[in-house]
Design goal:
Layout lengths: L11 H13 L4 H7 L2 E2 L17 E2 L3 H13 L3 E4 L2 E4 L6 E5 L2 E7 L5 H12 L5 H12 L5 E2 L3 E12 L18 H4 L3 E11 L7 E8 L8 H16 L3 E7 L3 H9 L3 E12 L2 E11 L1
Helix pairs in contact: 1-3, 2-3, 4-5
């Protein structure tokens, strides 16, 4: 669901439930019931040192929580995942055969955060992908891979790898996912990511920043292309029209890869970075979805 679309809710309670889940990454119905309380009217007597009556807030009845959660699910705002709720991204996943095994691209989940952060940090440590450092800091600071509120919209897809010999599902002749083992359910080792983030400003709502990265041992296996294609397809379906990415101009391999996939260099910002005590230009590349 995340993308340029407007956030409109049937009532204030549903909005507060959504905001609680969005802010915390995941939440159980019991947690929502106790944290998102409802007004039951003023108390029988005035609180101490109060000049007026204060409305009392109590936990919602279980049936009411269930009704609101079902409504948010049917409206496409929340999704249920193992008994807890998270912001709906869809369950877009694809399983592919690549060199050395099978890779599944799927939305990142709350429980993926630690491993995802480690992968991003590993790529960022090479000093050829400065934006990855920013992403790593965001992951470390926040408790959810997905954000979709009035200010920003962000989603991560990860690539999980299952080596040759695993009982993993693969694409059939029509490109559909097969049934299978580790690769099919996406619980293998995280080896890469694609991240899309857009601002909610009306003037920029059609644009999102994309970053993609793969750990060094799994490069040149076709994983980066699978991630990039997945990100572009999702962005188009979510309503984005243009994606951009910034890189140090010295990262010639990544720039060449993007250009081979149809990205165009739109600008060069002179001496934008300082890497190893040397000034390095920034290359801005973009593609229309």
């Amino acid at each position: 669901m995340t993308g340029p679309s407007e956030l409109t809710f049937e009532n204030d309670v549903r909005q507060r439930i959504y905001e609680y889940v969005e802010r915390n990454g995941t939440a159980s119905p019991s947690e929502i019931r106790h944290q998102v309380r409802i007004d039951t009217g003023p108390p029988a007597s005035k609180p101490a040192r109060s000049s007026g009556l204060t409305a009392e807030r109590t936990p919602m009845p279980v049936a009411q929580v269930r009704e609101h959660l079902q409504g948010l699910e049917s409206e496409g705002y929340l999704a249920q995942d193992g008994g807890t709720y998270r912001v709906a991204v869809g369950d877009d996943r694809a399983t592919h055969e690549v060199e050395g095994g099978t890779v599944t691209v799927r939305p990142a989940r709350h429980e993926d955060l630690a491993d995802l952060a480690a992968v991003v940090e590993e790529v960022a440590s090479e000093e050829t992908y400065v934006d990855a450092r920013t992403i790593a800091a965001v992951i470390d600071h926040e408790e959810t891979p997905t954000r979709h509120n009035e200010r920003e919209s962000r989603v991560f897809f990860i690539a999980t790898h299952s080596p040759d010999g695993g009982d993993a599902g693969t694409d059939d002749a029509d490109g559909n996912n097969g049934d299978g083992g580790d690769g099919g359910d996406g619980n293998g080792e995280i080896v890469g990511w694609v991240h899309l983030e857009g601002l909610r400003l009306a003037e920029l709502r059609h644009v999102a920043e994309l970053t993609v990265g793969v750990v060094a041992p799994h490069r040149r296996e076709g994983i980066g292309k699978r991630l990039l294609d997945h990100g572009l397809e999702w962005a188009g379906g979510a309503g984005y029209e243009k994606l951009y990415q910034t890189l140090p101009a010295t990262n010639e391999e990544a720039i060449s890869f993007l250009e081979s996939e149809g990205w165009e260099r739109e600008a060069t910002h002179a001496d934008h970075y300082r890497i190893s005590d040397e000034y390095v230009d920034e290359a801005l590349l973009a593609i229309w979805v």
